[in-house]
Design goal:
Blueprint lengths: L2 H10 L6 H11 L2 H6 L11 H13 L3 E4 L18 E6 L8 E5 L6 H16 L3 E4 L5 H8 L4 E4 L13 H9 L3 E4 L11 H12 L2 E4 L7 H11 L3 E4 L10 H8 L3 E2 L3 H9 L14 H9 L4 E2 H8 L4 H9 L3 E4 L3 E4 L2
Parallel strand pairs: 3-4, 3-7, 4-5, 5-6, 7-8, 8-9
Antiparallel strand pairs: 1-2, 2-6, 10-12, 11-12
């Protein structure tokens, strides 16, 4: 990290100095070093350089890297608008963002068909060289990440000292193990405050070359992402759903308002990539025990029923099938296969 970036971080760490103000500080003073010399004119809360250097050591302890917009490796998609982050933190493979990207978001409480469709969509995008971006939440976001597990980007609404939600930490570990990326604009120890997530959504929108809204009710963070995407000039698609299911109201209304309907994965791939795409709806290859468990879970089964039929050693296999998106846990500790 060059010295000018360290001076930039001193301002970035001050609550109330966001991306727009950081850019204006640079314009007003010509350099962050010069601004730091005049820091009392900007804010009394600007930390000294030793504090920033200690902060960088803390980042290393957590295995977190930092990039500023002064670095040529900073994601180009975040350079286009003044209100986008000027500093990002990340774990994993930053080169994941060099591929064409599709952002997929939706409700935390989706229907099983919606989860399955998003998983298949994400898998098809992965097969065709796309990186899938989402917000790491339960529900639609998780299905999007699972379908492209080794080429996916999680955008966090908190600092990377603790990954949120905690229920998805095994998924986040697998994403990092397989070459994916987790990023955040928030300093290391910032908790997942409610107000962080609308800001997180603008990053998801900016990082996608295309933005897809999965199942979304009338009030949803996914719709905030869609609005940001439109502001940034992105092409927005929405997955249509049963109008009797209130979880589809927001995504269906987006289509009414002009979003493109993503009614068929092959047609979507054809439009965003051209004729040279790969799409297969074939079932994944499973070993004998995996196949047996999948077939057993064609109908909802309780954990006790699973153990009774497969024994106590079934837990690792069941968990692995959940991570892959092949099995879902339903309310009441019930399980059902998705394929």
């Amino acid at each position: 990290m060059i010295e000018e970036e360290i001076f930039l971080l001193a301002f970035h760490l001050v609550d109330g100095i966001g991306p727009v103000k950081i850019r204006r500080i640079l314009e007003d003073f010509g350099s962050f070093e010069e601004a730091y010399k005049n820091r009392d004119k900007i804010s009394p809360k600007v930390p000294d350089i030793r504090t920033v250097e200690n902060y960088l050591k803390e980042l290393k302890k957590f295995g977190v890297n930092v990039l500023t917009f002064l670095n040529p490796k900073f994601p180009k998609r975040l350079m286009d608008f003044e209100n986008l982050p000027k500093v990002i933190y990340y774990k994993g493979n930053i080169n994941t963002l060099e591929n064409p990207t599709v952002s997929i978001v939706g409700t935390r409480y989706p229907s099983l068909p919606a989860k399955n469709f998003v998983y298949k969509l994400s898998s098809a995008l992965f097969e065709n060289g796309f990186t899938v971006v989402s917000g790491g939440a339960l529900g639609i976001d998780s299905s999007a990440h699972k379908g492209a597990i080794s080429r996916t980007v999680v955008v966090m609404g908190c600092g990377l000292s603790r990954l949120y939600p905690k229920e998805n930490r095994p998924l986040f570990d697998e994403i990092l193990d397989k070459g994916g990326l987790i990023i955040s604009e928030f300093p290391l120890y910032i908790p997942p405050n409610k107000g962080n997530f609308p800001a997180r959504n603008r990053v998801i929108a900016a990082l996608g070359d295309f933005v897809v809204i999965g199942q979304s009710p009338a009030k949803s963070g996914a719709l905030i992402t869609a609005r940001w995407a439109l502001d940034y000039g992105k092409e927005v698609w929405a997955i249509p759903g049963d109008p009797e299911d209130i979880r589809n109201y927001g995504s269906n209304k987006l289509i009414y308002d002009g979003a493109k309907p993503l009614y068929d994965i092959a047609e979507f791939l054809k439009e965003i990539k051209g004729e040279s795409f790969v799409y297969s709806s074939k079932r994944p290859e499973l070993n004998e025990k995996e196949s047996a468990l999948i077939e057993f879970l064609r109908e909802e089964k309780s954990l006790d029923e699973i153990i009774e039929n497969f024994g106590n050693d079934i837990f690792p296999l069941l968990f692995n099938l959940q991570i892959k998106g092949y099995v879902s846990e339903l309310p009441g500790k019930l399980f059902r296969s998705n394929i």
